[in-house]
C-alpha cells in the first residue's frame, strides 16, 4: 500500500507565538513563496479575522503564483450556544480566500468542562455544526483536535468521539494536537494506532506536535 505524507506548515501562525518574533505582511508573503518552493503542501497563513495584518495577508497571497502549496486559514469552532451561521469566527474564515479552513476544537473533557465551561454534548455539536457550515459553503475543512493526546489519556472515548463527529460532518483531515508538548513518541505511536483502528481506513490523520516543555 502506498503511503502519502502531506506537509502542513504553521510557521506563519504558531511559529510567531514566541517573544521577539513579529512578521510583517511582506515577511509572511516571502516565507510563503519559500515554503512553496520546498514543496510544502499546505501553508497556514494565520488566524482569520484576528488582526489587520492577517486579513491583508489573505487578500494578497492570492497574487502569488504558487506551484505546490494551498493556503489554509485557522479559526475556532462556533461558540457555545451560538448558531454556526451567526458566529463571527466562521464568517471571518469564509471571508478569507483560503481554499482550506482549519477549525480548532476541544477534544479534552477537561478543556470542555473547565475552560469552555459547556457540556460535552454541546462541544460535539460545536464541532459538527462548524464543519458542516463551512462545507456547505464549498470549502475544504481540516479539524485540529486541540489537547487531543492529553484528552485521550483522560477520556479516550470522548477524544475519539470529537474526531468522529468532525469526520462525519465532512472534515477531510483530522489533526491530533499535542498542545502541551508532553506526550512521548512511544505514546504518540500507540495512540495514533488506536485512533486509526477505531476510525477506520477512510480517516486521514495528521500530527501537530509541540516542544513547549523544553
Could you provide a short overview of the structure?
The chain is α/β, with parallel strands linked by helices. The chain has one domain: Alpha-Beta Barrel (TIM Barrel). Helix content is 43%, strand content 18%.
Fold and architecture overview:
The protein has helices at 25-37, 52-60, 88-95, 109-116, 120-136, 148-154, 156-169, 185-199, and strands at 8-9, 42-47, 70-76, 100-106, 140-146, 173-177, 205-208. By secondary structure, it is of the alpha/beta class. The chain has one domain: Aldolase class I (TIM Barrel, Alpha-Beta Barrel). Strands 1-2-3-4-5-6-7 form a seven-stranded parallel sheet. The longest helix has 17 residues, at 120-136.
Keywords:
214 residues, alpha/beta, TIM Barrel, seven-stranded parallel sheet, 8 helices, 7 strands, 18% strand, globular
Rounded to an integer in angstroms, the radius of gyration calculated over CA atoms is: 17 Å
Major sheet, described briefly? Answer: 7 strands, parallel
Compute the average pLDDT.
95
CATH class: Alpha Beta
The CATH topology, please?
Answer: TIM Barrel
Please outline the helices and strands.
Layout: E1 8-9, H1 25-37, E2 42-47, H2 52-60, E3 70-76, H3 88-95, E4 100-106, H4 109-116, H5 120-136, E5 140-146, H6 148-154, H7 156-169, E6 173-177, H8 185-199, E7 205-208
Parallel strand pairs: 1-2, 2-3, 3-4, 4-5, 5-6, 6-7
Helix pairs in contact: 1-2, 5-7, 6-7
Amino acid at each position: 500500500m502506498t503511503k502519502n505524507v502531506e506537509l502542513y506548515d504553521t510557521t506563519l501562525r504558531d511559529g510567531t507565538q514566541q517573544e521577539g518574533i513579529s512578521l510583517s505582511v511582506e515577511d509572511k508573503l516571502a516565507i510563503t513563496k519559500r515554503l512553496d518552493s520546498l514543496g510544502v503542501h499546505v501553508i497556514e497563513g494565520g488566524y482569520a479575522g484576528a488582526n489587520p495584518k492577517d486579513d491583508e495577508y489573505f487578500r494578497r497571497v492570492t497574487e502569488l503564483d504558487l506551484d505546490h502549496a494551498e493556503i489554509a486559514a485557522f479559526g475556532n469552532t462556533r461558540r457555545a450556544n451560538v448558531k454556526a451561521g451567526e458566529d463571527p469566527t466562521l464568517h471571518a474564515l469564509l471571508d478569507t480566500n483560503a481554499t482550506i479552513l482549519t477549525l480548532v476544537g476541544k477534544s479534552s473533557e477537561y478543556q470542555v468542562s473547565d475552560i469552555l465551561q459547556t457540556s460535552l454534548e454541546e462541544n460535539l455539536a460545536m464541532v459538527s455544526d462548524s464543519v458542516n457550515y463551512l462545507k456547505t459553503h464549498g470549502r475544504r475543512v481540516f479539524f485540529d483536535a486541540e489537547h487531543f493526546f492529553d484528552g485521550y489519556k483522560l477520556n479516550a472515548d470522548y477524544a475519539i468521539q470529537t474526531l468522529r463527529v468532525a469526520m462525519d460532518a465532512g472534515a477531510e483531515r483530522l489533526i491530533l494536537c499535542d498542545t502541551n508538548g508532553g506526550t512521548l513518541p512511544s505514546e504518540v505511536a500507540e495512540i495514533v494506532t488506536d485512533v486509526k483502528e477505531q476510525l477506520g481506513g477512510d480517516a486521514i490523520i495528521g500530527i501537530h506536535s509541540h516542544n513547549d516543555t523544553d
